[in-house]
Amino acid sequence: MTSATDTELDVLGALLAFDFIGFAQKSAALDPADPHYGQAVGAAFGLAARRRFPRGATPEGIGGYVAEVLGSLDAGAEDFDPAFLEGLIADGLHGTAPGGEHPDPETTIQARLVLTLRLVRELGLDPDQQRELLAEAASRLAA
User: Which terminal CB of the chain, N or C, has fewer other CB atoms within 10 Å?
Assistant: First the structure.
C-alpha cells in the first residue's frame, strides 16, 4: 500500500465519521499528480456500490438513483453531471476503472467521496463496518 492509499482512506474515513476538520486537514495532503491518486477512494466506492446494488442495476435504475442523489444534495452538488455520476456507478458496479471522457481526477475523487458517503449511509454501516470497508479496499489495492 502506498502513502497515497493510506491518505485517501484516512480522508474517506474522516468524511464517513463526519470529522470535517480531519477531512479538510487530510485532504490537503492528497496529491492529484500522484500516479495512484483516486485508486483507494475508487476501490472503497466500488465496494460500497456493489453492496448497495448486490444484483447490479439497469441503466434506468442507476439514472433514477443519481437523480435521487442529486435532488437530495445541497448547493454545489449540481456541479456534477448526472451522466458522469451514472458512469461512475456503472463502473463501480462492474469493478472497472472509469472509461471514456471523465472530468479531471479531482472531480472524480470528489464525486466518489460524495457517492460513497451516501451509499454508506444508505447501507447503515456502523463505525466498525465502515472501518471494515476501508480495510477491504486497502487489501484489494495491496493484492
Answer: C
CA distance 119 to 137: 15
| Other residues' Cβ atoms within 10 Å of the Cβ of residue 143 | 5
How far apart are the C-alpha atoms of 83 and 31, rounded to whole Å? 26
Q: Residue 93, Cβ neighbours under 10 Å: how many?
A: 18
Instruction: Give the whole-angstrom CA distance, residue 143 versus residue 140.
Output: 5
Q: Which of 103, 97, 115, 108 is nearest to 43 (CA)?
A: 97
pLDDT per residue as tens digits for the range 73-106: 765 555 788 999 999 999 999 876 655 446 688 8
pLDDT of res. 136: 94
